[in-house]
Automatic annotation (TrEMBL):
<dbReference type="Pfam" id="PF04860">
    <property type="entry name" value="Phage_portal"/>
</dbReference>
<dbReference type="InterPro" id="IPR006427">
    <property type="entry name" value="Portal_HK97"/>
</dbReference>
<protein>
    <submittedName>
        <fullName>Phage portal protein</fullName>
    </submittedName>
</protein>
<dbReference type="InterPro" id="IPR006944">
    <property type="entry name" value="Phage/GTA_portal"/>
</dbReference>
<feature type="compositionally biased region" description="Polar residues">
    <location>
        <begin position="388"/>
        <end position="407"/>
    </location>
</feature>
<feature type="region of interest" description="Disordered">
    <location>
        <begin position="377"/>
        <end position="407"/>
    </location>
</feature>
Length: 407
């Protein structure tokens, strides 16, 4: 906590300088396992993999929409805008939009920064090429601009924020966000150590769950023979459950789970909650269901809680970065905006989607054709007129409606 507080104070008060990626590689000397907490090491933990996969996959699956203000004050999809194809369909020749946003969102979750090089043609952005955060060095330039240096495939780049899209994670520093790998490395290291200890225990498969007692002291040779026989017959998970024959005055006493094993199981459960806490993911959403959720019951409440408290801030951060760094003053003057379409979260919930559309149609704030468009259905005649139910009338007018003449 003190380190995090000091880092935040440095971000607020300290001078802005070059952030060298190699700076983070030499900070693993004091870890328990002695291993560097790289992406591969962290993602080998099932909890970290599940958290990142859930966050990144959910964000990347939401379509990025580009809107433009209409003359009547409403807004319409700006499919003719060059950014619509880049952000919604395909940012570059090698990636789909889903691939690109998964890369950027994973970079944000683990490294605290997402980078992409802007590809321009005739002054318009026609592509975005992602850049791996670990190879990027960021510095403050004179005049308030920010410089970016990196090398890839034998080619070096020295660019500015004019040609680099930089989405910053938590931290608020113009040079970049805080790295989850760095500030959570002790938590990841502890979980790695616990998993390694558990793996070793089950690999050996020879925990002292029983005690073989002899009436008399054994000679060194006899003791070695007994230990060797036990290990050859019972070691390993495949040999568990074999019968044991006691002879020569032996007695067998079974042991309940020992304190060390109980502590290991408890520590593994605690490490799951710690990693979930780092990423802001409720444990029940990655299959850790020992404790009931405080978000209510049902998929609707879980989804709403996940959107409100976890996704909203992440999506807003990306939206604001895209609008600030990709839109031109001309776009801003025309009311062009960039947003994630959260309605995509309703795709997997037919009941929630039906309730959403029913409210929209019954209260007149969506038309039939707008709903059909969201469901990828063709428009129908007369479907562009808003409608609303009219059952609610003043109590003084009840029973005064005109009745049709009998035929």
């Amino acid at each position: 906590m003190n380190r995090l507080k000091a880092a935040l104070l440095t971000l607020i008060k300290g001078p802005l300088s070059i952030r060298d990626p190699a700076h983070w590689r030499n900070r693993d000397a004091d870890t328990i396992t002695g291993a560097a907490m790289t992406e591969s090491a962290v993602l080998s933990l099932s909890t970290a993999w599940a958290c990142v996969n859930l966050l990144v996959g959910t964000q990347a699956s939401l379509p990025v929409m580009v809107y433009r203000s209409a003359k009547d004050g409403s807004r319409v999809l700006a499919k003719d805008h060059s950014l619509y194809r880049v952000l919604h369909d395909s940012p570059n020749s090698q990636q789909t939009a889903l691939d690109f946003w998964e890369f950027v969102c994973a970079s944000l979750e683990l490294r605290g920064n997402g980078y992409a090089r802007k590809v321009k043609s005739q002054g318009k952005i026609v592509g975005l090429v992602p850049i791996y955060p670990d190879i990027m060095a960021v510095r403050q330039l004179s005049g308030g601009r920010i410089g970016y240096r990196w090398s890839v495939d034998g080619k070096s780049y020295d660019e500015s924020d004019e040609t680099v899209l930089h989405i910053r994670g938590f931290g608020g520093n113009p040079l970049g966000g805080l790295s989850t790998l760095e500030y959570g490395r002790q938590t990841f290291d502890l979980a790695t150590g616990i998993n390694a200890a558990a793996t070793t225990t089950f690999k050996n498969g020879m925990r002292p769950s029983i005690v073989v007692a002899f009436k008399e002291f054994l000679t060194p040779i006899q003791r070695t023979d007994v230990e060797t026989a036990l290990q050859e017959k019972f070691i390993g998970a495949m040999n568990a459950g074999r019968p044991f024959i006691a002879e020569g005055g032996q007695t067998i006493n079974t042991l309940s789970i020992n304190p060390e094993d109980a502590q290991m199981l408890e520590s593994r459960g605690f490490s799951v909650e710690e990693i979930c806490r780092l990423f802001g993911v409720p444990p029940h959403m990655i299959g850790h269901t020992e404790k009931s959720t405080s978000w209510g019951t049902g998929i609707e409440q879980q989804t709403l809680g996940f959107v409100k408290f976890t996704l909203r801030r992440r999506l807003k951060r990306i939206e604001q970065a895209l609008m600030k760094q990709l839109l031109t003053p001309y776009d801003v003057a025309r009311g062009v905006t960039i947003e994630f379409n959260l309605e995509g979260l309703l795709r997997g919930d037919s009941a929630g989607r039906s309730a959403f559309y029913g409210s929209a149609l019954n209260n007149g704030w969506m038309t039939i054709n707008e709903v059909r468009s969201l469901e990828n259905l063709p428009p129908v005649d007369g479907g562009d007129v808003p409608r609303m139910q009219s059952q609610n009338v003043p109590i003084t007018d009840a029973g005064q409606q005109e009745t049709p003449n009998a035929v």
